Amino acid sequence: MTEPIAPRYDSSGVQQGKVSLDADLFGVTPNREVMHQVVVAHLAARRSGTAHTKTRAEVRGGGRKPWRQKGTGRARHGSIRSPIWVGGGVAHGPRDRNFVQRTPKKMKALALRGALSARASEGAVKIIEQFDWEVPRTKTAASLLEQIGVKGKALVITERTEEVAARSFRNLPQVILGHPRSLNTYDVLWASTIIFSASALETTSDRESTAGRPVQDDQEMPATTEGQDSP
Q1: Coil/strand/helix, residue 20
Q2: Among positive and negative, which fits the CA dihedral 208, 214, 219, 222?
Q3: Under a CB-based contact definition with an 8 Å cutoff, are residues 7 and 15 in contact?
Q4: Pairing between β-strand 15-20 and β-strand 5-9 as defined by DSSP bridges
Q5: Which pTM was predicted?
Q6: What is the per-residue DSSP string for 107-166?
Q7: Percent of residues, the chain, with pLDDT higher than 90
Q8: Cβ(201)–Cβ(8) under 8 Å?
Q9: What domains can be seen in the chain, in order of their start residue?
Q10: Does residue 224 have a pLDDT over 70?
Q11: Separation CA 158–CA 135 (nearest Å)
């Protein structure tokens, strides 16, 4: 892939040039299968899993046989809490469960790199030098998005210290906020445009530069033999 590049703007939306993006983060070949698996796991983890019904064994009452087995002309029943009775238990109903799927860290890192690379190859990554707004104002944030040509859904990634920018963007429809340390594959793929502040981009690159990669020692330690006297 060619070297990933993103346009750079000031806080008023005037383009100031272009920025070379980290090729290890924005220039890899996306793995669609891995991204799909990570997104499915992400959505599964968001499920509450609180739908729960009681079986006939859990419903209160129903311990006595409603009438004798024979001689009444009625159908045979052993409990008024059978699933076919009103007020009885539920057969094969939903139960409390945990939908969380265990996903390896390396797989999450690979999926995130693939998602960011896909957006970078589409020209959907934009960099804001610095949000130097003095007061939070939704109108200012909307004007910036219009000025830099953002249409549709957008993910704005800022540092936690850039609170004025976050408060300006948070009321806009189809805009979600993110932080470098909470960035995930689902949010990147959900948005049509990814907007980084310059400091957030640097933090993201530092965070992902070694994420999911094996750490190699610079030098191997010599093997020692127990019980051997040193010369």
Answers
A1: strand
A2: positive
A3: yes
A4: antiparallel
A5: 0.78
A6: HHHHHHHHHHHHHHHTT-EEEES----SS--HHHHHHHHHHTT--S-EEEE--TT-HHHH
A7: 84
A8: no
A9: 5-32+103-208 (3.40.1370.10), 48-98 (no CATH)
A10: no
A11: 16
